[in-house]
Amino acid sequence: MSDLDLESVFAAVSSPYVLVDRDLRMLWANQAYMTVTGRTREQLIGRIMTEEFPAEPDSVSDQMLRQSLARAFDTGITDHLPLIPYPIQNADGTLVTRYWSASHAPIRGADGKVAYVLQNTNDVTDLYDEIKSAGSGEVGPKSDLLRRAEEVSIRNLELGNATQFFQTIFDQAPGFMAVTTGQEHAFKIVNEAYSDLCGQRELVGLGVREALPELADQGFFELLDKVYETGKPIGLNGAEAILTERGGAQTRVYADFVYQPLRDRTGKVIGIFTQGHDVTSKVLAERALAEAEERFRTMAQSMPSPVWTALPDGQLDWLSDRFYEVTGHAQGTLFGDGWRQLLHPDESAEVIAAWDRTIAATRDFEAELRLKVADGSFRWHLVRAAVVQDPSGRIVRWVGTNTDIHDRKLAEAALADLNATLEERVQARNKELEAVHAALRQSQKMEAIGTLAGGVAHDFNNLLQAITGSLELASKDMAEGSAEHRRIEQAMTAVGRGARLASQLLSFSRRQPLSPRPVDLGALIEESQPILRSALGAGIELRLESAPDLWNTLVDPASMENALLNLAVNARDAMEGMGRLTIEASNVRLDEEYARTHTDAAAGEHVMLTVSDTGPGMSADVIERAIEPFFSTKSDGRGTGLGLPMVYGFTTQSGGHMRLESPPGSGAVVRIYLPRTVRPALESAPAVIRTGARGGHETILLVEDDEIVRATVLSQLHDLGYRVLEAQDADEGLVIVDSDAHIDLILTDVVMPGRLTSRELAAHALKVRPGLPVLFSSGYTRDAMLHDGRLEEGVQLLSKPYSRETLAAKLREMLDGADGAPAASPPSDHSAGRESGNGAAPWSPTGKGPSEDQAQANPEESQSGMRILVCEDDALICLDLAEMSATRGAKVEMANNGRDAIRILDRDGADLLLVDLGLPDMSGLEVAQRAVEINPDIAILFATGQHDLPELSGFARAGLLTKPFGEKMLHRQIDALLR
């Protein structure tokens, strides 16, 4: 109040004045007011008026004062109290009712709103008492004034009470209401609902355009003007209004309302009464419901099953298009109870009754029933309906779906028929699964062993290749028929056996390069008859049978012939040279059931090769292990155990399946299933005539990572007259290919270390040097050159170990073919493959065993007069051992089995027995024990591939020679035993 100099304005005024705010707190009073109330400034300023001058709550005095002040604050118009009785405390503390005449003038603040009321009050108690004491019968100006003042005061009180009562009802009305007056539509009165709708802003006293400026251009002002001008009411439903909240954010509201004109006694429109309801929640809910229904119907139309809805009484009011498609009825024909015509006659009454019970109980519905579909048949459906209720629990509608379960019902019926045999079928299935799992385990085991065998064959072939080249080069300058030349030939024979052993390992591991072609298996068996009869011997009858309409199959002919020979030799050994062997070829079709229970078999048409003998057969345990490499039921030294594994590997690599059978007492049966081919069989290739090694003058790029092999092949190539460029891996080879060096052919190993592979080197070479021949060489392709077990088209492969003659022929074939000259037929890589797999283990005469690397040379000691008996079942090895034993003057005799060795010991005796552990008729240990019985002083030297022999401690004079060994190691062991 610092801007008002109230003291200077009202100091000299004799009439009492006091200033209060909206809380009725007294902010200022003049001296006249303090005098008439008997208070000091300190007792008044800051105090609430009704607390400093209390009256009984809700008394006439309290009501009159509060209502007058409220009218002044609310309306902004001065309010008068002509006469108001009001108690006041005297100086002595007594409470005395005094009469006052007061006026309340509103004072607005800087914002234009009423902020204060200035009360002018006059004490008229003396005047009131004077008039009252004159008597009620006296009539005069003073008495009339008093009477009128009392009437006005009472009427004001009554009017205030009525107004307050009306305002209370007005505020508590369920809808919003407001009264506007004049052409400006100034707000006269608004209830709380209207104030809430408008964001609790100040409205009273303001015109609508000033109070609600955001409604401009929304049409409401124009409607008010129209009602005011025409005097006709206007009502709207769901009218949208955009209002601005205090923070500036806009809000969208919807209302149902009416503008009702207000008239004076003459009928003139003086104002407008606005009454309505905020329906924002209702409108938004209806819109959300409409959107939800649209989403529901869109989703329902996209569902594969029919969807429908029903009214609370169960009458269908909507069905998806899928419903009409399934039933074949026209749109709209199934509304209400129309759906009942779809029910099966046997179930109609029951289903309808169940639906009526569901509606009555207000619960979800579920039933399996038959409905007529478009083709006139009945199909089983699962019908479900869910009840949709509002918050009060009233049913809004039903939502249902129909799911076709006809196939399931048929399956359930079939399953019910099969339940009686369930246990039997479970047992059969368990057996089937056990068989499948066993086959899978066997397959995994064979795969692991095959991978190992293939890796061993790779390294073994590299070693054999180095030995082969070195032996051939060494024999070049030796005289034909000399002792040295004979030893080289014996070593080459042993290398050949090692190569065959590696070939068998590769065949088992399914890494043997195959060259399959369409073959008439019956014709191939017939062509193989001479070699089969030769291998079987005179004591075994051979029967060959082939179906007259036998299909062709796609196999490598040489590998197939080798597999036949292995099976025949195995059967010969099982029958001990006496019996009957039957080889039969026929057509079979393997069904899905067979393929499912045999993991390596495929359904379809096959050519079946059956090899059966009349031997003792095989036990179940032997059958389970028969295709494991190196497993054999024969005595030591009677085979490598690679015969059947080789056949198994060849069969699976050819896409076939092998099965072993052995009916009790009926011998063994091997069945091989090879996939049928519709391609015509090709004639057998003519035999290759070797004309000796022929070299040339071309330049060859040799790429080989093994230093020994590279050096050996380099010498062979130089010996054949070729110029050679060397590279130790594909990376170095690439550098040479990209250089200006002249190259006529690339000879590269398949498996090498380095960044690049041999395949990538070859591809790059053909790109930069089109037409350049590339010859791959490897002892183990590891699938690098194979596709489904077969050589990829166009790939030229030379399998290790290869001879100088084979290398020379292959080089000329490729170089002559590249020059446009007729290419010679390639040498057969299978010429050495006709081996039963039961020969002796390979033996090297080089003398470079693990123990000999550390051996020191001993002075030669004469063994003249010593008698040495060599017992070895392999004739070549036996001859070689005899020659080595005789180099120091010893007398040497030979035996190929244990019985002959014992006979020689009984007849001639011996100082030293050199015996192999694996003999065809008995073990080397048994021969040694018999020799000691004959001659306790005899020295025993065991030759074996083992590095330890625990039985050695049972002999007084015995030693161990670990294969392979050479002459030096042999004599060192003999000298040690003699000493």
UniProtKB/TrEMBL annotation:
It is an enzyme of class 2 (transferase). PROSITE patterns: HIS_KIN (PS50109), PAC (PS50113), PAS (PS50112), RESPONSE_REGULATORY (PS50110). Residues 817-830 have a biased composition (Low complexity). SMART domains: HATPase_c (SM00387), HisKA (SM00388), PAC (SM00086), PAS (SM00091), REC (SM00448). Residues 411-443 form a coiled coil. Residues 817-863 are annotated as: Disordered. InterPro entries: CheY-like_superfamily, HATPase_C_sf, HATPase_dom, His_kinase_dom, HisK_dim/P_dom, HisK_dim/P_sf, PAC, PAS. It comes from the Bacteria. Residues 853-863 have a biased composition (Polar residues). Signal peptide: none annotated. Gene3D superfamilies: 1.10.287.130, 3.40.50.2300, Histidine kinase-like ATPase, C-terminal domain, PAS domain. NCBIfam families: sensory_box. This is histidine kinase. It comes from Brevirhabdus pacifica.
